[in-house]
Amino acid sequence: MPAKLIRVVPALAVLIAMAIASASGAARAQAIQFWTDNPASGHVAKAQTLPDFVQLAEKLSPAVVNISTEGARESSEEGEYGSPYGRQRGRSLGSGFIVSRDGYILTNDHVIENPRKVTVTLQNGRNYVAKVVGGDSKTDVALLKIDAGNDLPVAPLGNSADVKVGQSVMAIGNPFGFDHSVTVGIVSAKGRFLPDSLDQFIQTDASINPGNSGGPLIDLNGGVVGVNSAIYTRTGQNMGIGFAIPINLVKGELPQLREHGKVVRGWLGVYIQEVTPELAETMELKEAKGALVAEVLKGSPAEQAGVKRGDVIVEFDGHPISDRRELPLRVAETPLGKKVTFKVIRDKQTKELTAAITESHETQMASAEEGPKSSVPSSFGLRVQDLSADLAHQLGLDTDSGVMVSNVEPGSRADEAGLQKRDVILEVNRAPVKNVSAYQQALKTSGKNTIVLLLVKRGDTTLYFALKPEA
Q1: 31, 118, 121, 453: which has the fewest C-beta neighbours closer than 10 Å?
Q2: Close Cβ partners of 153 (under 8 Å, ≥ 6 residues apart)
Q3: Is there a contact between 95 and 136 (Cβ–Cβ < 8 Å)?
Q4: For 331-366, how does the pLDDT look when each residue is reduced to its tens digit (9 = 90+)?
Q5: Is 140 annotated in the active site?
Q6: CA atoms within 13 A on the CB side of 41
Q7: Which of 132-146, 181-195, 436-450 has the highest mean pLDDT?
């Protein structure tokens, strides 16, 4: 059975949402801080014996809460967990923790997704109906508020930047509804990128199961260094690989969530993709590094800065970009309105550009419906057809120039590269192709023993694909 990344909420497993850093940054968070920090957090205790988690559990457990929702979206993945207690109709169960004495509670956004009613249960058994103050699906963070007086126990927030691989950590939560369960382990890794996510997670082997989602990951000094969010699993149960959102990222978002109910981020206005070794070879790059610009959005800061499709962004605001997933993080944490300098490689030359970062305002385009199936065979396991005006309209394109992929042979070079049915091929080796005839001629010109670079339109974006020579 293939492995999965699962949000740890029983009966409502959801794929991990994209997560990127808050644009407000630490300076804004510090200015209107309303939570409690632990100044000792991050300094690993030099214990001569095994750590004693008894005092930590006694101190932090009262600040951890059980969160249940009514009217949450039903999940088709319920059977993955094999819960012996049957279906909890319309209810989601997760964890959270109190970050201020007046009742602000931190949890995962997916724990309280589409709720009709959110109920918070404290360790002493008292129940409160919570108000959803704000949430951010991209980082999977949500802020709740309960009215329970002004002397609630709090979980102080630590410093995730000081977390070390190998240090001991503790998780508290409500796995399968068993409230205030404590598990311990170590930090297995830092800076983990997960599928469909742009966050840099903390990886831990502290046991995390459905219901732990939204609970705290705590260091030996009693500071929360992460918010438990996901598990890597083949069965739906814990396999010793869990992931937590770094608390420093969360600190940067909390003020915006409390004030505005959402997080506003910086925006550059490009669609990017990974620079694979094949793409690097085709584009004559020295290294397979950076973020390849697949499309520049109209009216975006990138367009105004002079970014072009095919540029490879290798540095942003003084920070090297080795992995394409680093770029959205850097852009998102940039204050709105700031002018930043970044470097791109274009035609083997390095260029320096400047852009003024603005608030994201991308528009979403509708998916195209199925179209005609008549086509002609091509190379690399593709069947293609001319892109007529009617077909272009169905696909939401403003041009009928190009050829549409009508079929991809399983196991072919095109299939291995990731091409899909309904993709529209716009260029072959940087040269535009208007129709099937021009496309086939471009393939012949490229030769049989060279990698072919295709520019493809898919949905509302464009992507580059490198096709290896056929055997």
Answers
A1: 31
A2: 62, 63, 98
A3: no
A4: 988 888 999 999 999 999 999 999 999 987 643 322
A5: yes
A6: 24
A7: 132-146
Which entry of 100, 181, 213, 446 is annotated as an active-site residue? Answer: 213
Instruction: Give residue 187's Cα distance to chain centre.
Output: 20
Is the distance from CB of 353 to CB of 374 less than 8 angstroms? no
The residue annotated as part of the active site, out of 22, 110, 160, 205, is 110
pLDDT for residue 265 is more than 70: yes
Q: Residue 277: what residue type?
A: P
Query: Any long-range contacts for 44-47 (C-beta under 8 Å, 24+ apart)?
Result: 44/164, 44/167, 44/219, 44/220, 45/220, 45/221, 47/220
Cα–Cα distance for residue pair 158/248, rounded to 1 Å = 8
Instruction: Give the burial string for 214-242 (b: 16+ CB within 10 Å, else e).
Output: bbbbbbbbbbbbbbbbbbbbeebbbeebb
Of the residues 140, 205, 219, 386, only one is catalytic, namely: 140
- What is the per-residue pLDDT across 274-304, written as a single tens digit (0 to 9) for each? 898 989 998 889 999 999 998 888 889 999 9
Backbone phi, psi, residue 357, to 5°: -70, 130
Task: Name residue, tokens 């630490």.
Answer: 26
378 is catalytic: no
Residue 86 has pLDDT above 60, yes or no: no
State mean pLDDT over 109-129.
89
Amino acid making up residue 269 = G
Contact partners, residue 47, CB within 8 Å, separation at least 6: 220
Question: What are residue 61's phi and psi, to 5 degrees?
Answer: -55, -40
CA distance 200 to 329: 9
Residues 248, 160 contacting (CB under 8 angstroms): yes
- Number of neighbours of residue 150 by Cβ within 10 angstroms: 9
Which is nearest to 199 in space by CA: 165, 164, 247, 155? Answer: 247
Active site residue 110: yes
CB 376 within 8 A of CB 436: yes
Average pLDDT score, the chain: 79
3-state SS, residue 428: strand
Per-residue tokens: 386: 């001319």
Dist. CA 443–CA 453, nearest whole Å: 10
Per-position b or e across 12-50, b if 16+ CB within 10 A of its CB: bbbebbebbbbbbeeebbeeeeebbbbeebbeeeeeeee
- Please provide the DSSP assignment of 125-153 as one string: S-EEEPEEEEEETTTTEEEEE--S-S---
The total of other beta-carbon atoms located within 10 Å of residue 83's CB is 16
The rounded distance, in Å, linking the Cα atoms of 393 and 391 is 5
What local confidence, expressed as pLDDT, does residue 85 receive? Answer: 30
**pLDDT score of 142:** 93
**C-alpha pair distances (Å), 231 with each of 178, 301, 346:** 18, 37, 40
